[in-house]
Design goal:
The chain is mostly helical. It folds into 2 domains: about 60 residues; about 70 residues, Cytochrome Bc1 Complex, Chain D, domain 2 (Orthogonal Bundle). About 55% of the residues lie in helices and about 5% in strands. It contains 6 helices and 2 strands, in the order ααββαααα. Strands 1-2 form a two-stranded antiparallel sheet. β1 and β2 form a beta hairpin. α3 crosses α6 and α5 crosses α6. The radius of gyration is 34 Å and the shape is elongated.
Length: about 160
Amino acid sequence: MEPTTQSNEEERARNRIYSLINVVVALAFILSAAVLIALILRPGFFTEQPSSAIAETEPIDRDLIENGIHVRTGLIDAEGLMTVVNNCTNCHSAKLLTQNRMSADRWNETILWMQQTQNLWELGSNQEVIVNYLVTNYPPKKKGRRMILSDIEWYELED
């Protein structure tokens, strides 16, 4: 008689688990339906355009200049800007140009290195335009360990 009692208890436990699973599935279904209904009833649900559709209708000016700055790259608007944008920002950020302030010789060496190791194309007469733009608008800065101290009142330490 014991095997029958044990199998009945196992069956009841199994039935409780199945009932619990059914309750969880039903709650998940109800919650999903409630979220869907809330979204549909939200004002403007049927009239709003998705953001991708809005973006397609607005023209994007990739060469917009505001306050003397090329908006897309952050570079200064000056002679040679578009040559720099078209040749340099295809491979890396304009930030790389502005943070690596170098002399004309160093820029020419860097361009040669990029051509030899990074598959940079031959720039031809554009190289001079690019280097002139960079040296003129982003010249090297003299840097030290710290700024020079000036206008300091010194005092003597007492023993």
